[in-house]
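Hi all, long-time lurker, first post. I run a small reading group and we've been trying to get comfortable going from sequence to structure in the token notation. Rather than ask abstract questions, I figured I'd post a concrete chain and ask someone more experienced to write out its structure so we can walk through it together at our next meeting. Sequence below, copied exactly:
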Amino acid sequence: MAERILVVGGSSGIGRGTAELLARRGAEVTVADLKPGSEAMAYVPVELADPASIDEALAALDGEWDGVAHIAGIPGTAPDDKVIAVNFLGMRRFVTGIAGRIKRGGGLAIVASTAGSAWSLRLAQNEGLLASPGFAEGSTWYAENAEEGYPAYFVSKEATVAFAKQFSAYAWREYGIRVNTVSPGPVETPILADFEEEMGKDVLNTLKTSVGRHAQPADIAPVLAFLLSPDAGWVMGQDIQVDGGFLAGISAGAAAAATFAGQQG
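-- Answer (accepted) --
Happy to help. Here is the structure in token form:
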């Protein structure tokens, strides 16, 4: 019997690439998104900025699931309140709502971002958002505590990584499922232009130069598929950076690279 996999945000970009990869591997894939994915896949509409829409989608998704990939998200060019709503509050409501219907031993993989890499350094700043009991409370907290000049997109992804780590122990204990995040760098998707507008095309081109190219959805999808598979049976609470090694190079420092270069020959 084919595995049942749900891909939230499976109509385009990384989500579509992941849905199509899983389908090629024999899974029965359902897409939850603003619009349908491949015609061959079942579809449930959802607007992650609207808690009522999330609840309707959860009610429409019947039965148990072998795995769930939550990939949907919007760039920081959208209004700040919507960025927080879709990328964090909506994600949190959806995954906590579906987690109990993932079969024991299954996986829940959530797409975060290298923009959330400072999650541990900013736990204090994001504590109120993480502790908010619901969608409305989280929206209110952000409206009252947003840091001027600090991107809402970064906050949403920092909170995503921290939430997944906090939720992973509970989800394993209560449901027997594995929760992990995947953090891509820039990816050639329809919203790459929005990231260039928000972060600066020169900055993203610097990243592109440092690793040779931007990622393709096909670079990210197999990692998500792995995290949903039994092969990842002892991988829990991890944030896996799939960025061509960019953050590794930054954290190691230019001096290390110069040392290796000097040792050649």
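A couple of things your group might point at:
Strands lie at 4-8, 28-33, 42-45, 65-70, 102-111, 178-184, 239-242.
The chain has a mean pLDDT of 90.
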